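Bit of a strange request maybe. I'm writing a small parser for structure token strings and I need a real example to test against, not something I typed by hand. Could someone generate the tokens for this chain?
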Amino acid sequence: MENPFAQLLPEAFHFTKLQASQFVLLLGIILFAGAAGGWLFKKIKIPQVVGYIVIGIIIGSSGMHILEPSVISALDPISTISLSLIGFLVGAELKIGTIKKYGKQFVSILIFEAVTPAIVVGFLITLIVYLVTKNLAHALSLGLLLGAICSATAPAATTDVLAEYRTKGPLTSTVYGLVAMDDAVALILYTIASTIASPLIGGTPLPVGIQLLNIVKDIFGSILLGCIFGFMLMLITRFIYNDEGRSLCFSLGALFLSTGIAQALNLDNILAAMSVGFFLVNFAPAKVQSVFTLTSKFTPPVYVLFFVLVGAKLNIWIITPFLGILALVYVLGRTLGKALGSTFGAVITKAPKSVQKYLPFCLLSQAGVAIGLSIAAGNDFADSIGPEILLIITATTFIVQLIGPVFVKIGVTKAGECGLNITIDDIKKNTRVTDVIVGNEKICNYDSPAIISENESLFNLLNRFSHNRNLNYVVKTADGKMGGVITLEHLKEIMQIGEFAESMLAIDVMIPSPVSCKPSTTLPDAYKLFEKYDIDAIPIIDTEDEPLGILEKSTVDHFLHTQVINLHRKIEELDN
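Reply from user aminoacidic:
Good idea to test on real output. This should exercise your parser:
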């Protein structure tokens, strides 16, 4: 009996055994080569996403043709999954508190940064095409549609850079808000532009009112669908949040279900996924929000696949000289329009200086929605300007996808927001014992006040406890080695002996330490030692067993707390 579900699958996924093995091989090539490219570009201080795209260009339609167009089409579900994950994590950044704080800025900047490039690109393209062709209808139609398409900003490449450099601050918040919303503006502008252009070149479009109603249905339908799945996921994960594996499975399942249903209903799957993340981050209990951390751990290989495929789709050899000139004008006009619009919107709303100065750097990337609208234009105007639009957007996507991430990095670096989106656990992982500082003094050095000689009198030792912050001391023997430790608790017991204790030396009251650490020991490893041996202090020694100081748990806790406070102060300063 024929399997009824087989008809639901795209033809590209009816693999034979040979095709399946080739599919796995191609995934291996994409992941391995893409990861290598990302690593190499990161080494030379270029965002890793550029490396992924360059590898895709090399092995795709513009290069070695390892990935043919038919294969790339068969791998389209990977792009859908990746965009869903990106949408989900972008939604996680849209906290209601942030929206209330920056809401007016978001709306104002959004309008100007989306509409201004549409006007600039539309005017320049119309002017140049008319001067060459002398066909006003053709020139105006092409200008209107390319102007509308250029307003969209790709969230994928932009947010990947923000995640890679752990950015946080007003610029980062503004960028997340804009890339989440300007695709909707692009859809509205495209609807208006296509309605005007169609009669100019002999088409019969739907009335603009009906098209706008369809967009409203798509937007609010996608949001409602995402919120429904966000609510379902919240109910489920609040009981299993301690089971990371099961939480991840339910999270991905809910996310992909919302994406699949959105596609089946012709809704916006990115907006649906974004709404899932938005609902969870704003309405779910804090313990449930660990799903974002779990999901982000799942994303790196999916992102590699996605951006390699983005590069593989680009065929740079099919552009004619005239279309090449139009593509260059499009990129320059879009860049100028985004810069003018975003800066003006930021200035009139009195956004922080970092947003006013560096937001234009972060809005150059173009991909998903722009390509989707160019495909729609290719279908809607197949016998006129559609093919030209497809080629121009293909060429410009190639350019801006390479330079966009680099400029995002420049913008957030100049804004001082790199490395601010970190937690205490992140600080621990990147800190070693030798990096711990209390006041202006490292706890690890040969002159540390926490080191005493074995012949130190008990009287002098008591003076040390009363004048220094340390509650534990490491004893140095006559031959320069570590002899043991003296703790305040043990010293209290010794003092109960009476007058006899006054004649004791450090060597008489020290106790052996069950463990020691090196300056290169990481803080996570140090905390494991604290827990394993149930102690509050660990001697620090060098490779020759000579004491360098003592690592006290309370001191490390204070250091980490101070680091977090300093990060929060930096973020608050950026808001001014």
